[in-house]
Known about the structure:
- The protein has helices at about 1-15, 50-65, 75-95, 115-125, 185-195; strands at about 110-115, 130-135, 135-145, 150-160, 165-170, 180-185, 220-225, 235-240, 245-250, 260-270.
- The chain is of the alpha+beta class.
- The termini are far apart.
Amino acid sequence: MEKLEATSELQSRLSSLSVSSFSGIASKNCDSSPLDRLQSTDLSQTVMYPDKQAKMDDNSNTKGSQQPTEDGKAPSEAAAGGDEQESNTNEKSSLPRDRKALPPLTQATTWTSMSLKELKAKLRQEKDSVVTVYRGDIMTVQVPTVPEAKRVCWEFATDGYDIGFGVYFDWSPVTSRAITVHISESSDDEDEDDELEAGPMVPGDVERGSKTVANSNLGEILPVYRQDSHLAVQGGSHDFPGEGTYHLKFDNSYSLWRNKTLYYRVYYSA
């Protein structure tokens, strides 16, 4: 009984005590959302303090209440319009300048001859006058103008099948008087043209005679056509329009299976 009475007396004393009964301890209610403490273990979330939150609220309100400019547009819209004008200016400045027009070229004089056997027999005796133009290839003979002559002439024939032929003139200054031959596949020829400063691209094929010319200094004298050089000798000439280099193209790019044996000669005439 004495123990029970002592226990009840102790409980009554403890219930009468409060936090304020101890010196150095002040009574304060806990903040339900302590922003100055770590609230989450997710480090990707940023803790916002009251003063920073207030600043951001002020900024958001300022953005939301932007005053229109004199033309009736908000500053952000005006800035966007300025960027658009700047981009248009850059696009205009990136456009290529107008290319200088090339001088006109006169038409070539062409002819045919039935002396196939005679021409082939003669050219077999000359060095590098009989060549094979392989399927898919284009052979270009580059002939520079020379002061001693006034025109360039050509004759050619083939065995068994036709071949494409065209003549172009490059107005670039002559740097060598040597006649050179270049062999390229049709895809290589197109890639090489793309690297040059291109003029208007004219799509076409050998049969229609509209060949793409990408070199800005290259003028067309004869478009590439398939010639019946296996039936008759194909010949022609052209007077020098000025200083430059002739490009005589023998085109077998349209052939998927057949190589062409070509007999040809190119010479000057006064």
